[in-house]
Structure formats: structure tokens, C-alpha cells
Amino acid sequence: MTPDVLALLLIVIGLTVYTLFAGADFGAGIWQVNTALGATKKERALLYGAIGPVWEANHVWLIFVVVMLFGAFPPAFAAICQALWLPLVLAVAGIVFRGVGFAFRSYSVGAEREQLGWEIVFAIGSTAAPFFLGMAVGALASGRLVVTDAGQFDGNYATGWVSPLALFMGFFTVGMCAFLTAVFLVREANQQGDPQLTDLWRSRALATGIWMGILTGVGLLYVSTDAPLLWDGFQRRSGALVAGSVVAGVATIVALVSRWYRGAVFAACAAVTAVIWGWALAQYPWLVPPSITIEEAKAPDRVLWFLIATAACGAVLLVPALGYLMWLFKVGRRQDQ
Fold first, then answer.
1. Whole-prediction pTM value?
2. Which residues contact 108 (CB under 8 A, 6 or more apart)?
3. Looking at residue 151, what DSSP letter applies?
4. Rounded to an integer, what distance in angstroms lies between the CA atom of residue 197 and that of residue 137?
5. Is the pLDDT reported for residue 172 higher than 60?
6. Which residues make beta-bridge pairs with 60?
7. How many CB atoms lie within 10 A of CB 156?
8. Rounded to whole angstroms, what are the CA distances from 309 to 7, 247, 305, 306, 316?
9. Percentage of the chain surpassing pLDDT 70?
10. Is the Cα dihedral 120, 122, 124, 127 positive or negative?
11. Contact between residue 275 and residue 291 where contact means Cβ atoms under 8 Å apart
């Protein structure tokens, strides 16, 4: 495997892990919006308790993706930052305000109005971040970004990234995060021995899963009409992954109906993973379609191998640390109770 393909593979892996874990965390705030901030104390305790130990650690993967893209494919990184700086800044603002809302909410115990205010900040930030990240991905995948042969964005910075596919991807990403959260919280509530919350999140997970299945079909229609280059890639290279996503989605519903919650979590993660990898494979070899390919944007081989080696060394430290963090606050905490 060539170093440029291996570097791209690491970027897609990082993006997948970030979507699965940070996406589930974003979903906690999204569900606050869905319930119009009317969740009961038990629901809020489950939401905030589930994400509390790891809510900021997940952004390590976003940093990893950004650094790898910058180091491995600098011309593509420059073009993306020029073309998509506005949605990316809005996404970062959402992440920041989400963190502020979550942190200050914890210090507002006993002051109900103040705590409600910070919960609103948390909910809006948690919804805005995946929405604008999804819009950025949709704008990139649409192939409508006006990028010159020199890698310079030549479009309108305020509106040049807005397209039907970009808007759809914004809402689709929000829905995907809500779906992951609902499935994760079914298992969390069941492990805590709360049948009422288990049934509540089970019904929400089933409804959201069915809705996301419908949106996936609509998304493929959008791609076929709004992004012909990407649609060609889906037809030629990503058909198996699209089918795999459908099968995993159906398996999630079946597992929820049969109350096999661990299986539902794995199936939901598989469905989302298949969507991400299907998009990446369909867009290959374009980084900024239809202007910049991997071959055109790649750094020298010695730089790519250095980045890959650095990522491998970092993984030796990072992955066990994150695994221990999850065990300590999830499995270990339950054993102590």
C-alpha cells in the first residue's frame, strides 16, 4: 500500500471513530432540543451521566484528522479551509459553546433558571456542531466548490458552499447523532436497571432508526441528481457498503425489537461506519472533487511515512489510555455500585 493511500486510510479511520463517539455525545444535546428541554430529571441524569466521563476526550480524533490532512495533503487542506471556513468556524463555535454549557451547568446545581440557561447553550451548541460539519462534508462531496488548478477557492465564501446536498447532509448528520445516542442510551439505561428509561429510549431509537433509513434513501436520490461524480463512485465502488449499511440498519431495528441491546449498539455502529466508508470510497481518488486528487495533493513520501509512523507511535499511547478511561468510568463504576 502506498503511503498516500495509507495516510488517507488513517484519516477515514479517525473520522469514523470521531463520528461514532463524539456523534453520540452531540446527540445528548440534540435530544435536549427534540424534547424541547422537557426531559425529566431521570432522563437528564442519564444523558449527562453517560457522556460526562468522555465528552471532551472524543475531540482528540477530530484533531487527529485535521493534523493528518494538513500534513499529508496540504493543497487539499488549504482549499478546504478557504472554501469551507464559514461552516467550519460555526462548527467549532458549536463545540466551544457546547463545552461551556456542559461545564457551567455542572456548577449551577440548585439554581434552576441558571442551569436551564446553560442547558439551552449546551443543546444549541451540540446541534450546531454536527449540522455545520455535515454541511461541510456535503458541500465537499457535491463537487460544486469552485477551486482553481492552483488550489485556490474562487467562489463566494458566504454562499459558495451551500447546496441542496450540503443542507441535506447537515440534517442527516444531526439525525445520525441522535440515532447513535438513542441506541447507546437504551443499553446504558438497561445496564442501570431502569426499565422505564429503557423502554423510553428503545422507542426513540426505533423511531429514529426508521426515520434514518428513510433519509438514507432520500440521500441517495440527492446524490444521483446533485453530485454526479459521487453517484458514479457509489455505483462503481460503494454498492456493497451501501447494502451493508442497509443490512446493519435493519439488524439494529431487529435487535431493539428483540431487546438485544448490545447487538443493537454494534449494528448501529456498523451502519454508520458503512455510510462513512461508502462515501469515502465513492469519492476516491478525489479529495476536493472535481479539482484535487490524492495524487495531486500528497506530500513527499518521506513526510507521509513520518506522519504514519508518528500516528502509529501515538496510537500505542492513546488507544490504551482511552480504553482505560472508558473502562474506568463505565465498567469499573458499575462494578463499584
1. 0.91
2. 114, 115, 118
3. S
4. 34
5. yes
6. none
7. 11
8. 10, 36, 6, 5, 11
9. 94
10. negative
11. no
